[in-house]
């Protein structure tokens, strides 16, 4: 959606919270957070905008809050850490590593089919396209655990034991009303804490510490 259009919509509906997220980020976490927040008395209307540029939408004022993976692009922004997401390799079912309980980064990157997501497909590609390419034996790649809920039956996901986890965060504009921001962020922290508590502790998962919001 055009940034100017989003800003115009926001200005006409002051008690509204625009949340930007990349499709599939956090799997069901975003839905659980939004539903839990909406049940609170006095909650602002929530509009979720799906985009690949969620951080940019917050920076330019088109969105109030973004759910994103922290890849070192949050300089100068306030944020709250929610959950660390383990890394999985996506493999076709007939791949030699597909039946293993876990693999290493070296196992994956030395495979001739391996491509990092940044170069495996076009930037606008959706997860369905990535999964189709894996299923056809055209590539293998690594993704966060949240993506494994949507891979279907033609692809398997294997934990990568020594890959660093992806940190899922909420970040926001500094001029978001504090009460609205805090209510949404605290709801997200509570939901994320429940997600961590219920996550199965496989060979590559370590329960992360609860950390407060940080600011520059």
TrEMBL record:
Source organism, top-level taxon:
Bacteria
Fetch the Pfam families from UniProt. Answer: LysR_substrate
Q: Which SUPFAM superfamilies match?
A: Periplasmic binding protein-like II
Give any GO molecular function from the UniProt entry.
Answer: DNA-binding transcription factor activity
Q: Which InterPro entries match?
A: LysR_subst-bd
Per the similarity annotation, which family is this? Belongs to the LysR transcriptional regulatory family.
- What is the protein named? LysR substrate-binding domain-containing protein
